[in-house]
Design goal:
The structure is a single chain. With 866 residues, the protein is α+β, with helices and mostly antiparallel strands. It contains 27 helices and 31 strands. Helix 3 (292-307) crosses helix 4 (323-338) and helix 9 packs parallel to helix 11 (590-606). Bound molecules: ligand BES and zinc ion. Residues 127, 129, 267-271, 300-301, 304-305, 308, 327, 331, 383, 388 line the site of ligand BES.
């Protein structure tokens, strides 16, 4: 540990460095926990069997714990035999083998930070990743200390459900009013995977038989009123279990798999061993209360947390710098699973959209960091788009290079070598290389270099030699405090098209029409022989690398690809490239509009879901992430609005015709039905914009006859955005309909917060609504997340102050959430004056007003920018 150099930055919060990693001094073979929950306090007794591994002191970590007693090998320790500091308990002169028993008092009933043991609604639950376990008991709370856990839970009878990891081995009464359960988890695990729950919960049960013939009991717990909303999650769980067997040869290892839904949760969900804890937003789903997007997210989150059982739990991280080892790999796995839920082209479009709007934006700002950072102050600040999504892209690139079969040989080797261990990114690359027989070590720098590489290309056709020469070069932005960037291996998947026929060209004698070029130097030339006429190249198919592409296309060539690309992803990407030129470089929209006019109806008739995505227009925040100085939110808004108006006008006939062709039909949870709903809503939005006479009447009708939330919310959005006469009545109707459905009320807040012309007064009024609740992160994010899509209002003194005030309030109450909210302001320095100075002043106003490591680190990073 080192103290940060600049004493003004985070003097009280030390910076942790990857290079300082030291293995643990003591291991823990077993831990026995006895947790007794009472209304006004919880008592935790823990007994650790410890063994010396290296020279040094025996140090246990603890935070906000009241130490009541400490024993060594069965005897109370005298005060001079241990040292208690703010965050550590040091046992002096500990023998090489010892039993340490501590008793502490904690207060989950007052824990608003939602880390450690806390109360959500009427139930007790835990969140221990990354460093929450130290808020429950003294322990070497680091992911490379793996132990076998036995947990006794005791609570009042009003909490009939008492759960912990592993198998239930005993249960009984304690007097008349209290009861207990004892759980044993046979697999060794790090402390961040410990979980327990006490509540009054209903359960949905099912089972799954593994490929090894082992039956597994599946249980999803939630409040009684929501139990029927757990069927989607249950089916997704069974699908995920089968998928991991079929695609990675991985079967589940315990006899039971439990999921508990909680309403107050900082993240989406958590993969605790055999006892996942989920934000209600990621597990509950019903057609009436959930949108298709959230229904889909439930399935992929269930898959994600399930897949962690192998990539994260059985094989875990040596230290938190390796976070992307489990998260990046697991996101790649859940993305691949999601290919079975909707067309792979649309899945890729959705993943790339979020990569570009979140990760590229993060990498372009002051919070830019490598997928494996080499230092941090607060690890909670590093659960980022870069760690997750760029981490997933790196695994994807290696998988692309290896091909399915060899990638599987590589992952088999990873599981064979490292099962039961806490490992590093190097261990993954080593296993993939050795297992597949392909050296992947040149991918390692992807993990340590920040910034989005830019690939620039040029194609030259020579009719005489019938040769097409493609020159590609790469450049990686130099970031302050990082060494000069080195060229990275960049797989570039391409196809060539015949301009006259629109057909893809054959690239080899085997009839392949696609190939992967490996760009691994600053500049490389690729030559294609026997090309009969000037081709059009389609680059970076399926987004084969997380890079910005800068190819010297004519707009007409991109328009050609919009029409003729056979790869749905690149069809969309061609449209996006054209749109970026229009929005960022002032290109004329005509080539795009013409191509859209011919392409959209065709795609709509065969693949409505893809058609709905072809109507994606880069968001204002994405456009902003590409503007590094003098950013004028009002000007960007007006350029984007003008484009949307032009699209709306140009395709007027299409909107009317296709809305009529997409009647509301009974709900189905299929990709086809989702596509029809998505396209209908997109069409309704453009029809409303185009001012088509009856568009808002159609919206009003759609609201009334909607059979599901996607339809109802899609209609309500147009009524609200275009100030329809009945928009207030419909908002009230929505509220009354769903008053007792927290997730639907989140949508109600979110819809109003995302209104493009929302004023800060309206946002403030929303945040004063009786149902707004600072203790429920979903509710807070329903406003902060949606309002953030409105840069015109956010980038004002008042808008920025709204975020700064919340960050300040949450600094003590829930610093993880406070820090994330403050990050909305990270690109302040790109603003044009006087906004830049005004927003900077708001940010500086937080100086000295916040104290948590999370918020203080983010504030310091923001202030360093510009
Ligand atoms: N391990 C994380 C959850 C987590 C991270 C909880 C940090 C607390 C602190 C989990 O596996 C995860 O990544 N969840 C994602 C959803 C997933 C679908 C990407 C989340 O919570 O957003
Ligand atoms: Zn995860």
């Amino acid at each position: 540990m080192n103290i940060a150099v600049n004493p003004d930055d985070h003097a009280v919060h030390p910076t942790i460095y990857l290079k300082d990693y030291q293995p643990p001094v003591f291991g823990v073979s077993t831990i026995d926990l006895d947790i007794r929950i009472h209304d006004t306090e919880t008592l935790v007794v823990s007994t650790l069997e410890m063994q010396r591994l290296h020279a040094g002191e025996l140090v246990l970590l603890g935070r906000d714990l009241e130490l009541l007693n400490v024993q060594l090998n069965g005897s109370d320790l005298a005060p001079n035999s241990y040292r208690l500091d703010k965050e550590t308990l040091t046992i002096l002169n500990a023998p090489d083998q010892c039993t340490i028993k501590t008793e502490v008092r904690i207060h989950p009933e007052n824990n608003t930070q939602l880390e450690g043991l806390y109360k959500s609604g009427g139930m007790y639950c835990t969140q221990n990743e990354p460093e929450g376990f130290r808020k429950i008991t003294f322990f070497p709370d680091r992911p490379d200390v793996l132990a076998v856990y036995t947990t006794r839970l005791e609570a009042d009878n009003q909490y009939p459900t008492l759960l912990a990891n592993g198998n239930l081995i005993e249960a009984g009464q304690v007097g008349a009013d209290r009861h207990y359960t004892i759980w044993q988890d046979p697999t060794k695990k790090p402390s961040y995977l410990f979980a327990c729950v006490a509540g009054d919960l209903a359960v949905l049960k099912d089972s799954f038989t593994t490929m090894e013939g082992k039956p597994v009991a599946l249980e999803i717990y939630t409040e009684e009123k929501d139990i029927e909303k757990c069927h989607v999650a249950m089916q997704a769980l069974k699908d995920s279990m089968l998928w991991d067997e079929e695609h990675y040869g991985r079967a589940y290892d315990l006899d039971n798999y439990m999921i508990v839904a909680v309403s107050q949760f900082n993240m989406g969900a958590m993969e605790n061993k055999g006892l996942n804890i989920f934000n209600t937003s990621c597990v509950l789903s019903s057609p009436e209360t959930s949108t298709d997007a959230s229904n889909f997210y439930v399935k992929s989150t269930i898959a994600h947390e399930y897949f962690h059982n192998w990539t994260g739990n059985r094989i875990t991280c040596r230290d938190w710098f390796q976070l992307c080892l489990k998260e990046g790999f697991t996101v790649f796995r859940d993305q691949s699973f999601s290919d079975t839920l909707q067309s792979p082209a649309v899945q890729r479009i959705d993943d790339v959209s979020s990569l570009k709007s979140a990760q590229f934006a993060e990498d372009a700002g002051p919070l830019s960091h490598p997928p494996r950072p080499d230092h941090f102050v607060e690890i909670n600040n590093f659960y980022t788009a870069t760690v997750y999504d760029k981490g997933a892209e790196i695994v994807r690139m290696m998988a692309t290079l290896l091909g399915e079969e060899n990638f599987r040989l590589g992952t088999d080797e990873y599981f064979r070598r490292h099962d039961g261990e806490a490992v590093t990114v190097e261990d993954l690359i080593g296993s993939l290389s050795d297992g597949s027989g392909t050296d992947l070590w040149n991918f390692l720098p992807w993990y340590s270099q920040p910034g989005t590489p830019v690939v620039t290309g040029q194609g030259v056709y020579d009719a005489e030699t019938r040769r097409y020469t493609l020159t590609l070069s790469q450049s990686i932005p130099k970031k302050p405090n990082y060494p000069a960037p080195q060229p990275l291996p960049i797989p570039v998947k391409i196809a060539l098209f015949n301009q006259q026929t629109g057909q893809p060209l054959l690239l080899d004698a085997q009839g392949e029409t696609e190939t992967v070029l490996m760009l691994n130097q600053s500049k490389q030339v690729f030559v294609f022989e026997h090309i009969a006429s000037q081709p059009i190249v389609s680059l970076l198919r399926d987004f084969s690398a997380p890079v910005l592409l800068n190819f010297d296309y004519q707009d007409q060539e991109l328009a050609f690809l919009m029409q003729y690309e056979t790869n749905g992803f690149n069809q969309w990407q061609a449209a996006q490239q054209l749109l970026e030129r229009i929005l960022l470089q002032g290109h004329d929209a005509s080539a795009y509009l013409e191509a859209l006019l011919v392409t959209l109806p065709k795609v709509a008739s065969v693949d409505p879901l893809l058609a709905s995505r072809l109507l994606d227009i880069p968001t204002e925040t994405f456009i902003a992430s590409r503007i590094d100085s003098n950013y004028d939110p009002v000007a960007v808004r007006s350029i984007r609005e003008a484009l949307m108006n032009a699209i709306a006008a140009e395709l007027k006939d299409f909107w009317s015709a296709s809305y009529a062709a997409l009647p509301i039909v009974p709900y189905a949870d299929t990709s086809e039905a989702m596509g029809q709903r998505a396209l209908r809503n997109a069409v309704l939005a453009f029809a409303s914009r185009a001012g088509i006479a009856n568009a808002l009447t159609l919206a009003s009708q759609q609201y009334d006859v909607a059979v599901c939330m996607t339809e109802r919310l899609g209609a309500l959005r147009q009524l609200v955005n275009y100030d329809a006469v009945d928009h207030d009545a419909k908002l009230t109707d929505f509220y009354q309909r769903f008053e007792n459905e927290a997730l639907a009320i989140d949508l109600w807040f979110g819809l109003q917060a995302s209104k493009p012309n929302a004023t800060i007064d309206e946002i403030t009024r929303l945040s004063q609504h009786p149902q707004f609740d600072l203790n429920t992160p979903n509710r807070v994010r329903s406003i902060t997340g949606n309002f953030a899509t409105n840069p015109v209002a956010v980038w004002t003194t008042e808008g920025a102050q709204f975020y700064a005030n919340l960050a300040k309030t949450l600094d003590a109450k829930n610093p993880i959430l406070g820090s994330r909210i403050l990050q909305v302001l990270s690109r302040w320095y790109t603003l044009k004056e006087p906004l830049r100075t005004q927003v900077r002043a708001v940010i500086d106003g937080l100086q000295g007003q916040v104290t948590s490591s999370s918020v203080v680190e983010t504030l310091a990073n923001l202030q360093k920018a510009g």
